[in-house]
Design goal:
Largest sheet: none
Strand content: under 5%
Structural class: mainly alpha
Number of domains: 1
Helix content: 55-70%
Number of strands: 0
């Protein structure tokens, strides 16, 4: 499966793997979001205490921030080597 065009500057500079790492982290974030919603709505009874639910929410937030930070800090412009996603 090809998500990034071979003609894009990201592919030509060999940074496609960085996009795939970002997408993988976002899939994990989505899965964690589903778990957080299920736990707080009591659809499941996997985590019985509020500390476990809060920890799950913190992990979800951390992975989401890590994913966005990853793509913002590691994808570089081929000409000037600056961060493309600089924020």
């Amino acid at each position: 499966m090809q998500l990034v065009s071979r003609n894009s500057w990201i592919a030509k500079t060999g940074q496609t793997w960085k996009i795939y790492v970002f997408l993988s982290l976002m899939v994990i974030t989505l899965a964690l979001l589903t778990c957080v919603v299920a736990e707080y709505n009591e659809w499941t009874n996997f985590l019985r205490d509020d500390l476990g639910k809060a920890s799950l929410a913190l992990v979800f937030t951390g992975v989401g921030i890590a994913a966005i930070s990853w793509v913002g800090l590691v994808v570089k412009c081929p000409a000037c080597k600056a961060n493309v996603g600089k924020f």
